[in-house]
Please model this.
Amino acid sequence: MAWRSVESLANVVYILAAAALWQHTDTVVWELSGSAMVIMYALAVASWLWYWQLHLFEYDCGLAFGSTTLVSEAAGAGRPKITNWKVGSRRWIRFPVHTAFFGMFFLLPTMTTDLLVLAIVVNVYNVVGSILYDKRLIKTAGEPYLRYLDVTGLIFPPVYRAPKGAGDMPMPAPSHWRKPSMHLPGLVVGLGLGALYHVLLGPTAITPMDMLKAGGAGLLGAVVTGLLLGAILKPRAADWAQQQTDLSTTVALNAATGVVTWATIGWIQTGQAPSFAAFLPLWFIVQYLGHVFAFLAGRRKWTVSLADDATAGAHADAAAPAASPASTPAAAPEKPRIGVTARTNTAGGIS
Model:
């Protein structure tokens, strides 16, 4: 699970570097106008909004991107577990975020050859990566994932093979939006984050220098909003894992709202959205590092549940009667930890 952090950070660095070095071409593959242009714009915007909707409502962002793993290590909470949620499009598609990539990169009203190359390469990477990820989950998650795999599609729904998808599978409901009002601070702070982006970056971000500024703006936004949310928010659950799910969701809402607010302001002022190369770093850096800084800002209050669990465990051990040597059975060899993971590590946090 720690690899998710490395993978996500590597992708952010690659996107920023590629955008900074990108060579634009003047050759137009297609250029739509009138109602066709409006429809294509609407579909492209819908794809981006779906991307954020999936992460906010159908995934646990902290598990998906690896920030919960880092925070858990820092708190001494052990390795977090992943639960597969049967929610929304994930009843039919194992990697719906990867489905959204096709609309995000292909549904452009004006497509030049350089953007078409980008769309093709990104989605070849997208498909190959999904296949390899699927194979890795088959090995690590075992039988539960195989049952889920049989009734879902990799990137597109199994319309003819399994039209009901995973609808009949017994799977838990999502727990991160059980009290939507707890995430309101993320929405409010996110609006301020979007205004901060506008001050630091202006209405657009296109040039190589803009890409460097976007990375810096994301880092600043992660520190400022993470520390602010960490100071404001309070644990709303007794369980450590649920606390981090709640915290990472609020921070993710802040990150997504910041990007959408900045893009909307820029679109109103200039008539065009900022380069999407800046969207993903701003979204990921704030979501990931914002969660880390939010935890650090209120480390004591977030680790109370861990101390309570440790105290309860110590009391239980002290209360247990001591076994005599004659009645103590020989210790069975410890099973590999992968056996535990195989029951819990399904598709719940994949992004």
Notes: The first strand starts at residue 28 and ends at 31. The chain has 14 helices and two strands.
